[in-house]
Amino acid sequence: MAQAAPPPPRPGGWGPGAMPPKRAPSSGAKARGSSPAAKARSSSRGAAKAKAKAASAPAPAEEDPKAKLLKEAEELFEKYEPDGKLDGVIKLAQFADIVRMMNTRKCMLWGDDPAPIIKREWTKAGGFEKRELNFEQFKSWWPDFAEATNSEFEEKRAAEEAKEAEEKKAREEKYTGDGVWQISIKDVLEAINEAHKKGKTALILDNTPNQRVETFFAYRGAFIIECKKLIVDKAKGAKVEDLLSEERDRFWSGKCFKYGQTVVFRLANTACDLKGTFNSGIFPTLAMLDRTEVAKVLGAENANNAKSSPFIKMARTSDEEMELTCSGINEQFAVVVISQFTEEDYEEFLKDMLPLELFQPMKPSVEE
Fold it and tell me: How do 89-90 and 334-339 pair as beta strands?
């Protein structure tokens, strides 16, 4: 009898006796394990564990200050001992270098030459006896010296900070209000800058012996306009426009705008009419006396304002006009008016001649 034929293979390609294919792992589990969210959670748990472990770990013990100084003494001795040996000795020359090093480290605490400190500390350390120090002597001396120096430095710094704060307070009090500032002659430049911060031009009442403020600006090379001469020349028949044209020529020759000159209107004992008579388009005195008007054109970043400023008409040539419109006015440029009138009289004589509302009056004094 013929043997029956084996049954046909089942769909999928495996028959009887054949092992079924291994089942692939769930794609859902794989997706869950490798998804960005799962990775983020795993990373977060790891970071949290690390943070907790770090928090529970004991903090490193701080090094004992005394031990730190002794270690520093050892390092210094090895560095400055000629052969770099702890069983050697250092002489006065090496000891002096160590003190100078400390002086430099503490911002020249003892000045440029700490010779008195070197001598004092050499004695304290026992160096005068044998004219040398061994390591034990140096190690015994260094901690006290370092601690005393640190204390002296901190005390000096605290004193300087207190003095600076006191001076700042005094300066703020001195430059408050619109009345006449009472200042020392040595503070003239500072006072001018403070007036600028208020948008004012300095009006200096120079009642000092021999008009020392006028002399001060003359020696500084300021550009001085002699107002008394303008009055006298006009009285002699000179035309105002010619006088102002001459001043404009001098002004540009002196490169006042370019180099930031200080322009001084020297009134002396006169009441020169700077508000009306000696003010024109080619020499805009009134605009120069207005610090807010000047400030609009200060610096290259404000050069574009020059085209609409009163100062553009001062330019005699296209080059001078370009200088103003491209570079503006040097930020150091300043205008000062100096009068010899007293504090009691200046308003009466100058109120019709100067725009007093544009000024900050100040009266310097000479410290005896």
Answer: unpaired
Q: Residue 286: CB partners within 8 Å, gap ≥ 6?
A: 274, 275, 279, 310, 355
356 contact partners, CB below 8 Å, separation of at least 6: 203, 347, 350
Q: What is the mean pLDDT of residues 224-239?
A: 98
Residue 332 CA to residue 298 CA, distance in Å, equals 8
- The answer to whether 37 and 31 are in contact (CB under 8 A) is no
Encoded tokens for 60: 């490193």
Tell me, what DSSP letter sits at residue 57?
A: S
Fold of 65-171: Recoverin; domain 1 (1.10.238)
User: From its phi and psi, is residue 69 left (phi > 0), alpha (psi between -120 and 50) or beta?
Assistant: alpha
Distance CA 191, CA 171 (A): 9
Cβ neighbours of residue 57 closer than 8 Å, sequence gap 6 or more: none
* Rounded Cα gap, residues 201 and 265, in angstroms: 11
- Bridge partners (DSSP) of residue 320 are none
Helix axes 65-80, 92-105, angle to 10 degrees: 130
pLDDT at res. 39:
58
Cβ atoms 193, 171 nearer than 8 A? no
Beta-sheet pairing, 89-90 with 133-134: antiparallel
Pair type for strands 223-226 and 262-268: parallel
Q: Where do the domains of the chain lie?
A: 65-171, 181-365
More reliable by pLDDT, 368 or 251: 251
Angle, alpha carbons 17-23-29 (nearest 5°): 170
Give the tens place of pLDDT for each residue, 56-96. 666 666 778 999 999 999 999 999 999 999 999 999 999 99
- Domain 181-365, what fold? Rossmann fold (3.40.50)
State how far the Cα of 81 lies from the Cα of 76, in Å rounded to an integer. Answer: 8
Model confidence band, residue 49 (pLDDT cutoffs 50, 70, 90): low
Q: Which amino acid, 145?
A: F
Q: What is the pLDDT of residues 175-197, one digit of tens each?
A: 988 899 999 999 999 999 999 99
Strand locations in 93-213, DSSP E? 133-134, 181-184, 201-205
